[in-house]
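Input record (one chain):
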Amino acid sequence: MQRPNEGEYAPYYNTYISKVPEGNIIDLLTQQIDSVKDTFKNISEEKSLFKYAPDKWTIRQVLGHVNDGEHIFPYRALQFSRNDKNILFGFDQNEYVKESNFNNVKLADLLNEFILAREANIVMFKNFAEEMWTHRGTVSKNEVTVRALPYIMCGHVTHHLNVIKEKYL
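The corresponding structure, as predicted from the sequence alone:
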């Protein structure tokens, strides 16, 4: 599958898609599981409650937010792959984290949730028929193709892994 072109997603998502290297997106999503494991494997439960500034998320909250993306973006892909034309609304990531219980969830459980969700998403994506990838839907008044969504997911995770490494560790 080829990379999505501009116009297949809201300009905001270029922040994420630009972080995705060349290659098969299914392979990249699969490889990213090990990158996530490696990033979080040496973080203690105590350290996982660290935030680098008062108004920033803890490490657990960052991983919880990544998990939210692992549920929301594939749902969009599923809906649009089925040619469902119902318009979806966006989500306020800050409100989602604020209303979450991430700081009371063990880091190991958050990591396991990521792995299981990602593995399920990969199986779903691997079984999409070719024509499903070009289906379009609307989220928050912006059109997106099914093909763009795994790229957004991959870049979203890369973005947050970089933040963890640069600001938290």
